[in-house]
Specification:
The protein has helices at 26-35, 48-55, 81-87, 92-101, 114-125, 160-176, 199-209, 237-261, 266-285, 312-327, 330-346, and strands at 12-17, 40-46, 66-70, 107-110, 135-140, 147-150, 184-188, 215-220, 232-234, 293-297, 302-306. The protein has 2 domains: 1-131 and 298-324, Isopropylmalate Dehydrogenase (3-Layer(aba) Sandwich), CATH 3.40.718; 138-291, Isopropylmalate Dehydrogenase. An 11-stranded mixed beta sheet has the order 3-2-1-4-11-10-5-6-9-7-8, with helices on both faces. With 347 residues, it is an alpha/beta fold. Helix 2 (48-55) links the parallel strand 2 and strand 3.
Length: 347
């Protein structure tokens, strides 16, 4: 079923790295086929013969909204990101990014080598004018409403001004793509008090508190990230990546242990049957595939980085959210906000 429908009637075009991911090209291509429509056209970058084989199992009705863009090379997960991007200029990932850079697509999605995708996006799409660092923003499927978490891996070392940029960009994403009114922003620290944290946190706290564009809540602790205390959580890429991996493994462990517990005895099985409907709702509420992947905010084009083991559902979600962001003119709004930050800093 095609879920994404344009509100303006305009067709959005997203380039997809059809060869990137643990289950490529099958799951990648079928994910695209499940959402391709008159509102969302998908350019499939990869080896034509392999893509055509996958399309044979897809709904024929979606075929008219899918276009194959030939790419003879593939960047593997074990390759050095920067070297691979520079050497494999005809890879599916690089060509998908190039489609955006040259104006044939509005955004790009890949479940391939994360480092390579970041490098390919930076090399081809370039940074927004005046921006110091792009940030990788993940949508956490927290119960009730999603929480944005930035940076989750693009920058292991940052300065306060970088975190201020991340906060502003993620706020715009939350407002325009996730439809959150006046999103609140929290800064990860070891205590809620403004005097808690290292030098980076203390300096960043002052910058955010003085920023008129932000609805700054203040410091949040690790325990608050998944509790909907704020709409946007900001930290450096090293801390963010560690937190994200821990959350992902914890979610998977909880679901696995609940399944085991529900099969340990006859009474447990009966209880499991009674709770089956509610457990499905709970599983969906913490399903990382609901939002597809992480969004590289700060480059001059929409770039979505999906998990390597993404299923067709995750790919479909990533394509839909990329299309939604494009329709909301996200990049233009990010450019405007960065320009405002530069003007404020200059005064």
């Amino acid at each position: 079923m095609n879920l994404y429908q344009s509100k303006t009637g305009k067709e959005t075009v997203i380039a997809l790295d059809a060869m990137g991911g643990d289950f490529a090209p099958d799951e990648i291509v079928l994910g695209a086929a499940s959402v391709a429509s008159s509102s969302l056209k998908v350019l499939l970058a990869g080896r034509p013969d392999e893509i055509e084989r996958c399309l044979a199992a897809a709904d024929p009705a979606s075929r008219r909204y899918l276009e194959i863009v030939e790419a003879s090379e593939v960047i593997g997960f074990d390759e050095d990101p920067v070297k691979a991007v520079r050497a494999k200029t005809e890879s599916s990932m690089v060509i998908a990014c190039r489609e955006v850079a040259e104006g044939r697509a509005d955004g790009v999605v890949s479940a391939g080598n994360t480092g390579a995708m970041l490098a390919a996006a930076m090399f081809n799409l370039k940074r927004i004018k005046g921006l110091k660092r792009p940030g990788l923003c993940a949508v956490l499927p927290t119960p009730g409403k999603p929480t944005l978490f930035i940076d989750v891996g693009a920058n292991s070392e940052v300065r306060p001004v970088h975190l201020l940029e991340f906060a502003n960009m993620a706020s715009i994403f939350a407002q325009d793509v996730l439809e959150v009114t006046n999103p609140s922003v929290g800064l990860v620290s070891i205590g809620e008090e403004s005097i808690k944290g290292n030098d980076l946190v203390l300096e960043t706290h002052s910058l955010m508190a003085e920023s008129p564009e932000l609805n700054f809540y203040g410091n949040v602790e690790g325990r608050d990230i998944l509790r909907n205390v704020v709409d946007v959580v900001v930290t450096d890429g090293f801390t963010g990546n560690v937190c994200l991996k821990l959350m992902e493994s914890t979610s998977a462990l909880i679901v696995e242990e609940v399944k085991k517990a529900a099969n340990r005895s006859l009474i447990a099985k009966i209880g499991g049957l009674l709770l089956k409907k509610e457990l499905r709702k709970f599983k969906k509420s913490i399903d990382t595939e609901e939002y597809g992947g992480a969004y590289l905010l700060g480059v001059r084009g929409l770039a979505v980085v999906c998990h390597g083991n993404s299923s067709r559902k995750a790919i479909a979600s990533a394509l839909e959210y990329a299309a939604r962001a494009s329709e909301q003119r996200l990049i233009s709004k990010l450019e405007q906000r960065i320009a405002t930050l530069r003007e404020t800093a200059a005064t």
